[in-house]
Write a structure and sequence with these properties.
The protein is an alpha+beta fold and 275 residues long. Helices cover 32% and strands 25% of the residues. The longest helix is centred in the N-terminal third of the chain and has 24 residues.
Amino acid sequence: MVNQFDDAQLGEALLSLAREAGAAIMEVRQGLDLSVEHKADDSPVTAADMAAHRVLAQGLPKLLSIPVVSEEDCDIPFSERRQWSHYWLIDPLDGTKEFIAGNDQFCINIALMERNAPYLGVVHAPVSGDSYLGSSQLGAWKYPARGKPVPVRARSLQLNRPLVALTSHRHGQAAVAPLLQRMAERWSAPVETQPMGSALKICHLAEGLGDIYPRLGPTSEWDTGAPHAILNAAGGAIVGTDFQPLEYNTKESLLNPDFYALGDPKFQWTQLLDA
């Protein structure tokens, strides 16, 4: 199925579509239509979420005619999903709470999934205009709003250099605090924390701007699919708390387990993280 396009062609097409979805989000934001509704799980949804969803739901099948799983359209039984070899996994507006709060830490996630893993991912930040693209064939790239694309690479962990932990603005601080304390006690240099919103945390790991993002709290598969592909392509990894690779579409629920996103998966993280 994916052989209908080479990765470069598909990546460029997805970047263009993500920018179109980003423009739809910004049009809603500039129109000040920030009315908020709540879904059954009490998570917020705005007109911007739905505007971006419509752009992607219409555009993606024109690139590859495969199923689409979106945060805004995910009621598909596992008995059907388990048959898929490839599918789109998207979050039209990742970081809705950041969008509602009026900051710029929200993004669009588009992943082409192959069986139980991300094959190719695009993440676009509408406010900055920056985008990220990654696959095993292409490597990992940042597309600045201005200027040429540049390759990015996750960084190796080095003793005696500060360890940078990216954390969520809004979720799981109480669960992560003891973990950060253990790391601070065991690491030979300071442990710095940088709170951020949305999948941009994982993209920053892919850029070499941090070392770990521990997520000990609820996320869904559309939150991680696209940045996971980019981080993999940059040399990093996302693993469960058992240090096994994070997998997708393996059960009825689309919730992820707790996980660690790692810039340097070759480092023996258990010596820092295990209780």
